[in-house]
Design brief:
The complex is a heterotetramer, with 2 copies of chain A and 2 copies of chain B. Chain A is built from 14 helices and 17 strands. Chain A is an alpha/beta fold. In chain A, strand 11 and strand 12 form a beta hairpin. The longest helix of chain A has 20 residues. The longest helix of chain B has 17 residues. Bound molecules: pyridoxal-5'-phosphate (2 copies). One pyridoxal-5'-phosphate sits at the interface of chains C and A.
Chain lengths: ~400, ~150, ~400, ~150
């Protein structure tokens, strides 16, 4: 059953406003999605009724809070088909999840001569943490090339790059600039053949596609709540239990210790080991509600909706004079990036904003990819459950006016 | 006082808490295990003397709340003379009692722990000593913790 | 002008509920404070009207979001009298702030033979991060003793311990177990004389006492929002600008880079350097509202209110048979910890909860201190702006019943 | 089109964007500085030939939005022939214009940038080239950034 997409808009009160005198058209979902009322209300209600610090408390509010927090962990384990909630570590977001793995797993496992394999389409958040740990350990970073025309991973080079020296292969599920959807099952299978540990950056897929870590077969998976109809400040590191329990702690503090002595300490197992200090339990609880919301629409239906909008946008935009569309011409996720020779992305964003349209222009935290594509910036329109065909028409109209003005 | 509380702190529990049985070291122990409840600081150490797969003697040391002290004390009285298989069966029964509140069919002191089920946060207090004892039986000597996600 | 404390209760809707059939008496404020309606509503309203990702966006919502986030940074700089907003780094909380300094400052500055000076009254969050970095660098940790009777820092030992080998002196402003208020100005002055960098754990003071980093003269200061009438998941690292800008990044990712290349990257200055990834901008915005709320009551007035309640509680509790009161008999912050020989803290907490009273029992993340005091746990009642004299009377009554039951 | 937009993209700006002045390298440059806008990716490089504290020649390379390209282009025309003190005074005036929207008393092309003040996020686009030029004058060669908290 497909949801009634029109009614979905009513779940997001923020959409019901004017920006610069025009109805808001929010097309910046790859940066962050909006949040449905049930999630905002649920978070507020938690603070209004149940708030207390978790874990160490035995009074009623603390037990309610702990149940809310651990309930969210269970919910998320189920959402991605993890084997157990102990495989779910709460973090601030994708970036912190990747930093945790790079520092703890990478810091304890990597040595000079080892290879960290990334791809040319990675977000800065899946490059810089590896550069930092490569510098410390002497490991080398290599990149799977992206084909210049269609923005796909060059799988023929992959076989040459994926040698037994590769200790970790970290790649994105969906590119936030190209819209490419990577063949993650195949990539994990190939990595396994050479004994490489896999990490998937699911920031752009988690709220948009059906996703099961069991099916994918990855070792780690990282995502942010704020891109999946969730609030800011909460995200997840999924890791296989045996891997997590073999990793040293990253941050130290309350809640992650078994014993503390003036001379040294011992650690709890995962996930507590990696959750030092008071966790962001309220936002974690709210993330569970976001999972419920997404599943109430259905991830298969969302994926179809997004990709339908993306093809519509791709087709309509391709008619604009002088436009260069970036990424795959075929199947793509719910976003389209483009560039004009004579109109800069920032000028487009400023103009579109005057029409009430929220776009993003810039390098999208993909500087190395931009360089490879011979660009310094693109403009990106990215879609989610509340976007409509007529919003895409409005976008095309606005872009037409902008081109006329500048060219 | 609320009825939940009188259910939780039954006379049997208060008695075992005030006058713990088998408390102290066991010089002839051939199995020892530590039990820790990191979040709240409860600790216990269980000593076993196992002869021919039978618990010939058992003792414990430690500190903690009335529930953990009483349950560990009662546990020692229950396990003395039992085989590993019997001990595991008894723990299974005890776990059922503290998690569901269903009292066993035969009359037994462990029934006093049925009130724990209304206080889910205290279940790990009630099972700490048992975890340590079973760990000692199975592994010789390790540290048990009740802080895993599957209780 | 003192606020009307009675009206203050109405600002916190969570208090208006029954727990186990009794009116809720929330005395677990040192673990986390409750949040006033203005903060909860402000956060919800932000999500309902202004949410978008910050910094890299040029459209209207993104600018509003950025202004909300950077406005909060300004507000917090003002709240603690920092020299500039660039000295304010947003983190998840006290624990992450200390880990950041330990890893980045400690990791780049400490070497074998150096001394990290802590105190015996530190929270695990101000011990374990230093143990982790001591292990990596070979630095040694020493502890300023706490006097056994009054729970004060032994200042006579301090002079012997504070040698030129001390690279960093990290200590708490207010002890979460003892209630001791440390002489932070004097401690910073003495540290300066030997050239030691100072870090203050202000988790327990920030929402309770007037606090100015200018007056205190510290180099770093760490605190959590959730203990100062703020939401969870947001906290602050204050650091002197020159120190922060000399520190290497800790986490890598989007937003903290100047340039990224496949071969390496360069960093922005503070605070961006230390805020990799999408920040928790919504909760940061809400933290600014918490500062407003606290200042609307007045921090001097709050401190007086808290310490009046603490003396009342201390005096009334001291009449209970067999009670051992922990910490200073004189001036103390708004909390009282105590222990009975024959009644364990957890049993007290469970009993009190049946009377609707929320207490905390355990080691309060102070295991080494507990050992020193010859205890495994204490029960703690901690107060905030909404607590009243009659709540303390109810606590004493409840404890009397508990003692009778067990002894 | 909104009036704010026509204010922002005035004819002078569009003209400088389409036909930038002094664009390219400067072989005889004795001062160079890079200007970066890390968040958005705008970049420029300003070359100066300074003789006896006077800017004898100036040129720039780079890429970015219409505002940054036009302002850098206009800046080069303004600074040619000026001393460091004069350049600083001109920047002060320019900064005043883009942040407050107040047009200068004398008629001047820089007045075209008054519309920027209605778009605070674009102020850093307008000042990028100026920052680089002043940095080159003061420090010889560095990278300027407009991403500090005090603009
Ligand atoms: C003195 C002290 N330091 C540090 C912390 C840790 O704060 P958080 O858990 O918010 O990181 C706490 C709170 O538990 C505390 O009381
Ligand atoms: C592909 C990808 N990876 C990682 C990130 C970083 O996520 P966050 O900023 O929430 O940590 C993003 C979002 O910006 C992204 O699009």
């Amino acid at each position: 059953m497909t949801p009634s997409w029109k009614n979905v808009r009513e779940d997001f009160p923020i959409l019901n406003q004017s920006v610069n005198g025009k109805p808001l058209i929010y097309l910046d979902n790859a940066a962050t999605s909006q949040k449905p009322k049930v999630v905002i209300d649920g978070l507020a209600s938690f603070y209004l009724k149940d708030n207390a610090n978790v874990h160490r408390g035995l009074h009623t509010l603390s037990m309610r809070s702990t149940n809310a927090y651990e309930g969210a962990r269970n919910r998320i384990a189920e959402f991605i088909a993890a084997e157990s909630p102990e495989e779910i570590v709460f973090t601030r977001g994708t970036t912190e999840s990747i930093n945790l793995v790079a520092a703890s797993f990478g810091g304890s496992q990597l040595k000079a001569g080892d290879v960290i394999l990334l791809t040319e389409m990675e977000h800065h958040s899946n490059i810089v943490p590896w550069q930092l740990i490569a510098q410390k350990t002497g490991a080398k970073i290599k990149y799977v090339p992206v084909t210049a025309d269609e923005g796909q991973l060059d799988l023929s080079s992959l076989d040459k790059l994926l040698t037994s020296e590769v200790k970790i292969f970290a790649f994105t599920h969906v590119s936030n600039t190209l819209g490419t959807i990577n063949p993650v099952i195949e990539l994990c299978r190939k990595a396994k053949q050479v004994g490489a540990t896999t990490l998937i950056d699911a920031a752009q897929s988690i709220g948009h596609l059906p996703l099961s870590v069991k099916e994918i077969g990855c070792d780690f998976l990282c995502f942010s709540g704020h891109k999946m109809a969730g609030v800011t400040g909460i995200g997840v590191l999924y890791g296989k239990k045996a891997l997590l329990n073999a990793m040293p702690p990253w941050q130290g503090g309350g809640g992650m210790i078994a014993t503390v002595d003036f001379d040294g300490s011992t650690w709890k197992p995962s996930p507590e080991r990696f959750e030092a200090g008071t966790p962001n339990y309220a936002d974690a609880y709210a993330l569970g509600l976001s999972c419920d919301y997404i599943d109430s629409l259905g991830r298969k239906a969302i994926a179809e909706h997004d990709s339908r909008l993306a093809s519509l946008a791709y087709n309509e935009l391709s008619k604009l004079p002088g436009i260069r569309l970036i990424g795959p011409s075929g199947a793509r996720s719910g976003l389209v990036s483009f560039a004009f020779k004579d109109v800069h992305a920032h000028d487009i964003v400023t103009f579109a904003d005057q029409d009430g349209i929220a776009l993003r222009g810039g390098h999208h935290c993909n500087q190395p990819l931009m360089k490879k594509l011979g660009l310094t910036s693109t403009t990106r329109a990215s879609f989610y459950v509340y976007n409509t065909d007529s919003e895409i028409e409005a976008l095309v109209k606005s872009l037409n006016r902008i081109i006329k003005f500048f060219c | 006082m609320s009825s939940d509380l009188t259910e939780l702190y039954q006379q049997v529990i208060l008695d075992h808490n005030r006058r713990p049985r088998n408390r102290g070291k066991l010089p002839q122990a051939n199995r020892v295990a530590q039990g820790d409840n990191p979040s709240c600081g409860d600790q216990c150490k269980v000593y076993l003397n196992v002869i021919d797969d039978r618990i010939a003697d058992i003792a414990f040391e430690g500190s903690g709340c009335a529930i953990s002290q009483a349950s560990t004390s009662l546990m020692t009285t229950q396990l003395k003379g039992k085989t590993q298989a019997e001990a595991e069966a008894l723990y299974k029964q005890f776990h059922e009692i503290v998690t569901t509140g269903k009292e066993p069919e035969e009359i037994s002191d462990v029934a006093a722990f049925a009130g724990v089920h209304a206080f889910p946060a205290r279940i790990k207090c009630a099972t700490l000593g048992w975890h340590a004892a079973l760990n000692a039986l199975k592994n010789g000597a390790t540290t048990a913790t009740t802080e895993s996600h599957k209780d």
